[in-house]
Amino acid sequence: MKTIKRLAVSAVAAAVMLGMVGCGDMSTRDKYTVGGAAAGALGGAVLTGGSGVGTIGGAAVGGIIGNQVGKNK
Prior knowledge:
Elements: H1 2-19, H2 28-47, H3 52-71
Helix pairs in contact: 1-2, 2-3
């Protein structure tokens, strides 16, 4: 079962990275927001064992942090 979860997390991470290739016309702040949300979702999924609530919560927190970090760039 752990192998399936690891594979799923890896697939999501790969999809996010491929999706970010299309972010060329985004502002720096937008890129930081998306990156933070992706990292937060991944972290939330790992920390909660793949829980949907943990993944969504992690994405929300990561997006907010990324947005604030990108504000000064």
